[in-house]
């Protein structure tokens, strides 16, 4: 068959690889939808319309809201990105201010371009020993709100990719007094409601709009997400219009059915399965607690860098002696384990309720063996990351539409960036489109280049030039 992608996926399916990566159904282990193609229909009679739901889709969304503890829930078939875009556009118009956690997903930046909103940033701290981001604090958010009292809303991410959780309840209390909405990108936390082992969800803690990716950590296919609302501050009619704009006009009934089936699973047999899942996480963490050269992120970081809680379902592994991309390669080639992410400083095994005891055992044995093989290696020096306060000169929308040109990095001081410069990890922009490039930023970029830090976002792969506004 001359179908390279289809063939490659079939080879991967039959390879014996264990998937510690998305989606959360783990290659079909957690959901049976063998007849999916037979259920792939359009908006025929009796099957409702996602963008004007008043029948079975509306019934399914109401059941979903009850399961997740929301007042209303909306199915998303274009992933959490479309929910984030719709949420921001429902609150902000051209020129409105939006307070944004600097470690937010790129879809937030897309929403700023589409809406014309003006970002005002709140900076999470970097956790020094790990070079990942901590949380944002209620105090920091209140300070930015006081400086921008006309801001319409605040958007933060919690939990983060690595499982860091902010104090949502305190942040929500601050914003309630200021009559600002709280939007939470909780794409990595849809599982947290279903066992007390995990942190409380953003909806439980008082957020107004919460977006969750079911496909990340629950048994649901890629692109299936849900947007939840709580309280009476959200303009529901505008939100519905924005959701219709951000999503396909031909929503997949397979995806919607999968969300509905996942919700039913969570209401029934999922309760017992979550108990087993939690025990597997505990056993894994207990089994690797004697490792000496690798480090597994745990709740010892709670209380540092504004971190309020931590999701132990994220298995984040750090090394001070070896590039963690190599660990990912070894796990793949020798142990037949594929991780969600490997970067120079750490790697992430993403778990879900669909993971098996055999999968956890395979990963545990592999990590113990890899750790022993690192005994003779010297520690390497980690780079300290610095992020100056951004100087926003024009909105992301103006920057996106403006004429642009390449200049040498050394000649860019004082100019307005037309692209991102993002050291990864930790994955936060040093500069974003519409922001001034300062002498300090150029010095930091050069330092990172000398230290072989991976920098993404720049069009010029040599990193010698940067795209700026003309």
β-strand number? 21
Tally the helices: 14
Low-confidence stretches: none
Q: Give the second-level CATH assignment, the architecture of the domain at 36-267.
A: 3-Layer(aba) Sandwich
Give the biggest beta sheet: 7 strands, mixed
Per CATH, the class of the domain at 36-267 reads Alpha Beta
- Shape, principal axes of CA atoms: globular
**Residue-averaged pLDDT:** 94
Helix content: 25-40%
Structure class: alpha/beta
Radius of gyration: 22 Å
SSE map:
Blueprint: H1 4-13, E1 18-20, H2 56-68, E2 72-76, H3 79-91, E3 97-101, H4 106-115, E4 118-122, E5 126-127, E6 132-133, H5 138-147, E7 153-157, E8 164-165, H6 168-178, E9 181-185, E10 209-212, H7 214-217, E11 225-229, H8 236-246, H9 253-267, H10 270-287, E12 294-296, E13 309-310, E14 314-319, H11 324-333, E15 337-339, E16 341-342, E17 346-350, H12 357-372, H13 396-401, E18 404-408, E19 422-423, H14 439-450, E20 455-456, E21 465-469
Parallel strand pairs: 1-15, 3-4, 3-7, 7-9, 9-10
Antiparallel strand pairs: 2-11, 5-6, 8-13, 10-11, 12-14, 14-17, 16-17, 18-21, 19-20
């Amino acid at each position: 068959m001359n179908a390279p992608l289809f063939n490659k996926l079939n080879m991967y399916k039959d390879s014996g690889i264990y998937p510690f990566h998305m989606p959360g159904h783990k290659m079909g282990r957690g959901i049976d939808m063998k007849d999916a193609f037979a259920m792939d229909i359009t908006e025929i009679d009796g099957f409702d319309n996602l963008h004007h739901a008043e029948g079975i889709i509306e019934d399914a969304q109401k059941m979903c809201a009850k399961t997740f503890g929301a007042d209303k829930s909306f199915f998303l078939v274009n992933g959490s990105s479309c929910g984030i875009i719709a949420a921001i556009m429902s609150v902000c118009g051209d020129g409105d201010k939006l307070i944004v956690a600097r470690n937010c997903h790129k879809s937030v930046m897309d929403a700023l371009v589409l809406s014309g909103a003006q970002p005002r940033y709140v900076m999470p701290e970097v956790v020094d020993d790990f070079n990942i981001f901590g949380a944002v604090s209620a105090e920091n958010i209140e300070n930015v709100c006081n400086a921008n009292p006309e801001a319409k809303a605040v958007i933060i991410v919690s939990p983060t990719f690595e499982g860091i959780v902010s104090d949502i309840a305190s942040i929500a209390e601050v914003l309630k007094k200021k009559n600002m909405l709280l939007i939470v990108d909780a794409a990595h936390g849809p599982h947290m409601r279903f066992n007390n082992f995990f942190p409380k969800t953003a909806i439980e803690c008082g957020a107004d709009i919460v977006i969750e990716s079911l496909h990340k950590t629950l048994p649901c296919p890629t692109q299936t997400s849900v947007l939840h609302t709580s309280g009476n501050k959200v303009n529901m009619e505008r939100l519905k219009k924005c959701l219709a704009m951000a999503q396909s006009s031909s929503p997949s009934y397979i995806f919607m059915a999968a969300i509905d089936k996942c919700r039913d699973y969570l209401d029934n047999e999922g309760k017992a399965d979550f108990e087993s899942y939690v025990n597997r996480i505990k056993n894994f963490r207990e089994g690797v607690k004697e490792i000496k050269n690798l480090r597994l992120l745990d709740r010892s970081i709670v209380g540092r860098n504004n971190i309020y809680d931590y999701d132990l379902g994220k298995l984040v592994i750090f090394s001070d002696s070896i590039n963690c991309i190599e660990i990912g390669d070894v796990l793949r080639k020798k142990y037949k384990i594929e991780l969600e992410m490997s970067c120079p400083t750490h790697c992430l095994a993403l778990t879900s309720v669909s993971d098996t005891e055999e999968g956890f055992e395979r990963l545990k044995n592999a990590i113990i063996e890899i750790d022993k093989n690192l005994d003779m290696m010297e520690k390497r020096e980690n780079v300290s990351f610095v992020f100056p306060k951004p100087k926003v000169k024009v909105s992301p929308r103006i920057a996106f539409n403006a004429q642009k040109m390449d200049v040498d990095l050394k000649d860019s001081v004082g100019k307005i960036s037309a692209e991102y410069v993002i050291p990864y990890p930790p994955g936060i922009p040093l500069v974003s489109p519409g922001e001034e490039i300062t002498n300090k930023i150029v010095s930091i970029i050069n330092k990172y280049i000398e230290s072989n830090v991976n920098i993404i976002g720049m069009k010029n792969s040599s990193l010698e030039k940067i795209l700026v506004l003309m």
